Amino acid sequence: MSHRIPDAVRLPELTLRGVLLGAAITLLFTASNVYLGLKVGLTFASAIPAAVISMAVLCRLPGANKLENNMVQTQASAAGTLSAIIFVLPGLLMIGYWQGFPFWQTSAICAIGGILGVLYTIPLRRVMVVQSDLPYPEGIAAAEILEVGSQATQRDAAASESTRHEKTGAGEIALGAGVAAAFAFASGGLRLLAESISVWFAVGRSAVQLATGFSLALVGAGYLVGIVGGLAMLIGTLIAWGVAVPWLTAITPAAAGQGLAAAWMALWSEKVRFIGAGTIGIAALWTLATLFKPMLQGIRASFGAMRGGSQARPPRTERDLPAGLLLGLTAVLLVLLTLVFAHFLHQAAPTLAAAPLWTLTLGCVLFAGVFGFLIAAACGYMAGLVGSSSSPISGIGIVAVILVSLMLLGFDAVSDALASLDPAVAQRLPTALALFVTSVILAVAAIANDNLQDLKTGYLVGATPWRQQVALIIGCVVGALVIPPVLSLLYHAYGFAGAMPRPGMDPSQALGAPQASLMTAIVRGVFDHDLEWGMLGIGLALGAALIGIDELLRRRGGSARLPVLAVGIGIYLPPSIIMPLVIGAVIGWLIERRLRARARAKGVELAVYAERPRRRAVLLASGLIVGESLVGVLLAGVIGLSGSPAPLALVGAGFAGTAQWLGLAVFVVVCLGFYRRVLRPQGA
Questions:
Q1: Residue 257 pLDDT more than 70?
Q2: Fewest C-beta atoms under 10 Å: which of 115, 182, 321, 556?
Q3: What is the phi/psi pair of residue 320, to 5°?
Q4: Which of left, alpha, beta for 603 (phi over 0: left; psi -120 to 50: alpha)?
Q5: How many other CB atoms sit within 10 Å of the CB of residue 207?
Q6: What are the structural domain ranges in the chain?
């Protein structure tokens, strides 16, 4: 466990050089997360790799310490987490409302939602971080990384560069990033390696697909998810492609002229995914229900503590931003949010009368403010309980978008304001507004999910809370400035599924943006009154049954669990995305088995023996994610400048079959290399 800096010790924390370094790392991880989220529908927690990179840089500078490193990783991880807003915003292009990403509107939504997420969770810090026994897995891991790096830097101030990289772990991140970048460049750039392999076969009138992608970023993400989550996703995939798709293809004839594979994919996209949405939605509601009572208790106790029963000045490590400042900032942000919503509505419907415009605006602000606060508290608690990566952000987004849509339907039922608009505008406006409001709520939820993890890290190392909270706000602002240009770059280079910026683009290279497309389909279904309620109902029933199974497993004790959210993700993401995640999780499980066997053979405790290999694996996995994602962003720039969908390709379409097998071979070699690298002898 980390050595905590005492209250009486004053060290540089929120420094100018730290803020600038944090901004640079923010660019790195925000771009990576935006690309990964648009491509496969997942983002990764960036606190640990951000801490490692910060240490590798600051250890070269005089006066560096772990509190300054902590501020850098706090700022960078907040901005990287904010990229979860891409789970909604691309939907505005998919419905044809936006033709690109307006910089100031997009930045304003990101910044306001993110800073509200920070402010909403500050009152929870004492109860949920200081006084609770919540595990905060990522927060504790980041604190341990900071401590190890700090000790190494102090012991080896005169060490060589390679030694410093080994002690801080930067070398492992660089290795993983280099391998993944080379693979991604060979596949996405040169087209020498395929990105996936897929085999379809029919059994009577039913269809079965066997597929896997070759994404090294997803292998790294799968390792971080772990075997429990990986197997749950695999169960979801088997439900979708082993049960639901074969059943639907057996009873649904293909359209005239439609190939079997295309018909089967259409059934999965238009029907089966909604089973996953229902499962994710019920998982999120169940989590919120189970946390409601402790959440209210935490809020009450925290606000009581902030009002204070003692006049004594609190110690340095207990000073939050003042309650008055929190309330004032929140009020200012809600006013700004009102102006942003009003501008959005006026742009969408310039002829809308003032009364309905401001009624809709204030209703949306009230919903975003109140629901966002409840979600922030719940997400903070969930992050402490199961970790940021396992918190059901997707499910919260689905619940929020349905509630916002129903609120707007209620407004339309009691007002004829929308009926007086142009029919095309009246049809598109509610869908666009529902997505816009949900994007704010998702930004609040994502940052709240990350904030308390960072504050836990700060508490363990002895940081000053109010300084760290300022760093979180800075991270949100910097991230909000980075996200729009990255989104625009990726959109104009690749396009999104169902939203291509110009004719002649290769639809096979379009970014799927799976969450955004799913939420858009849900909103459209609500307003068009043709939502797949039957499939959603099946998903709700399935989720309820799985929750019952998970509760039984929990009461029996042991490590066996069935996270329902992960099952839902397995249903609504394609196998080409899920299988690399499962492979990464299985590699992690095999590594743990081997470490356990070695520890027994040497007669030492597993936690002691496995500490360095586990840390090495986490950093390698993070490097795989960053390397592949950054190459995707860089290739987007090349594509955008050249105007060609494959400007660097060395081979034509006829090489596709060979590329599949080459891709598979290299993918297997890299996975084996990951396994062997983590398990190399401790002194190697």
A1: no
A2: 556
A3: -90, 170
A4: left
A5: 23
A6: 16-175+288-509
